[in-house]
Design brief:
Elements: H1 2-13, E1 15-20, E2 23-28, H2 29-32, H3 42-60, H4 67-104, H5 111-125, H6 131-144, H7 148-163, H8 176-199, H9 217-223, H10 225-234, E3 245-250, E4 253-258, H11 267-277, E5 290-292, E6 299-301, H12 302-306, H13 323-334, E7 340-344, H14 351-363, E8 367-371, H15 375-391
Parallel strand pairs: 7-8
Antiparallel strand pairs: 1-2, 3-4, 3-7, 5-6
Helix pairs in contact: 1-4, 1-8, 3-4, 4-7, 5-7, 6-7, 6-10, 7-8
Bound molecules: zinc ion (ZN).
Zinc ion binds near residues 322, 350 and 353.
């Protein structure tokens, strides 16, 4: 099946350009589809990067502003951007695994596939098809089947819907060779569409995320409820949200950090962020990173953990791989003159980072102002509780009931 192999080659050749300001990075398909051993994916890091950097940039341009307000401002945009990334990742990886399985297992493509694709195209040709409804339907079918031939038909149909508003003529393929050639062409067209969406920004400022009110086809698709539900079911979400990306800054320093070991599997991420941020140092996993015991006074370092003779493997490395604690270690080494540290992340610090945060607070070595989206709720609940508390007779000398 020479043309099937060629089509797989075309698929693997697809790449996407991500921009940050005037800088850009080209990400190949393999990298974009990467899932890591800790349950995170390449797209989680990319999406956290844009969310955090958008808030950081806006703060830089508006002195004294509250970061939490900017998190709120970018929240919808961040969600729709993540949806776009999940959608891209889902479609390309499904297509790749389906074509691979047809190729590797020597599954014979049967004539009815060509006919099924022709039949579907009649709907699209006569324009009695609602794009969003059809897409949800095909995504649903895709979820329901494990038969690679059926998957193939649904994936071709989805691709046709994504590319065409209306067909010039029904799609009749004489042979699979002809169909594969046509699919190669469609794939380039899809990547081009996707690329346009990736370039969209909330404002003229090129640093901000894609726009919240998307009026184009993708916006319409993602606003479709049943499609959203199917897409959410299909795209894997992390069980436990991690902080994939963080920045820390003060008057005389500015770092970024990513979650995990900073090893070979995350190299492409560091390369990308390095080229976007130009010379902004990364706070990486070093021997000085600490893990605090529950008393929040005693700690061990990564170096001590590493020198353990029969060190357990597996999940234990996560004891040291959080963005925040890599930043604390770098601050201890660099000793910046400014002791006021701002940190921007997308999730509340985890239990282990919170221990060190309280240790730093108690020892008054630094003042750390850490901001994340959830603070918006916490702040408004706290101020409401304060108002109620202050006006409640129970706290003004009244008697308890
Ligand atoms: Zn943590």
């Amino acid at each position: 099946m020479e043309n099937l192999e060629k089509l797989l080659g075309t698929l693997q050749e697809q790449s996407f350009t991500f921009n940050y300001g005037d800088r850009e990075a080209r990400i190949d398909l393999d990298t974009l589809l990467s899932d890591y051993d800790d349950g995170t994916s390449f797209i989680d890091y990319i999406s956290d990067f844009y969310y955090v950097q958008s808030v950081y940039q806006k703060l830089k341009n508006s002195e004294g502003a509250d970061p939490v307000e900017f998190f709120k401002e970018f929240s919808n945009s961040n969600k729709s951007y993540y949806k776009l990334l999940s959608f891209i990742k889902f479609y390309y990886s499904e297509l790749e695994s389906c074509l691979q399985s047809l190729n590797d297992n020597g599954i014979e493509l049967e004539e009815y596939c060509l006919f099924a694709i022709f039949e579907f195209s009649l709907d699209l040709y006569f324009d009695n098809v609602d794009k969003e409804v059809s897409l949800s339907r095909y995504f649903y079918f895709l979820e329901e089947t494990s038969n690679p031939l059926h998957k193939f038909i649904f994936l071709v149909n989805i691709l046709e819907i994504l590319i065409w508003d209306k067909l010039d003529s029904p799609l009749y393929y004489e042979s699979f060779d002809e169909l594969f050639e046509h699919l190669s062409y469609l794939l380039y067209a899809l990547t081009e569409e996707v690329q346009k969406l990736l370039r969209r920004r909330l404002s003229n400022d090129k640093l901000y995320l894609i726009s919240a009110p998307i009026h184009d086809w993708f916006g319409k698709i993602t606003r479709n409820k049943s499609f959203s539900i199917v897409l959410n079911n299909l795209t894997k979400t992390q069980d436990e949200k991690l902080n994939c990306y963080a920045v820390a800054y003060g008057n005389d320093f500015y770092y970024y950090a990513i979650n995990h070991m900073d090893g070979e599997d995350r190299k492409k991420l560091h390369d990308t962020f390095n080229s976007f941020l130009e010379n902004i140092p990364a706070a990486r996993l070093t021997d000085q990173v600490r893990y605090f015991l529950p008393n929040e006074i005693d700690y061990i370092t990564y170096e001590e953990f590493q020198s353990l003779p029969d060190k357990p493997d597996g999940n234990f490395n996560r004891m040291f791989t959080c963005c925040e604690r890599k930043i604390f270690a770098k601050l201890r080494t660099d000793k910046p003159a400014d002791k006021y540290v701002n940190i921007i992340v997308t999730q509340a610090p985890c239990e282990y980072c919170s221990r060190e945060l309280r240790y730093i607070k108690n020892n008054k070595t630094l003042t750390i102002d850490i901001n994340y989206p959830e603070l918006s709720n916490i702040n408004s609940y706290d101020s409401l509780a304060r108002k109620i508390f202050d006006s409640c007779p129970r706290h003004m000398g009244g008697t308890d009931i």
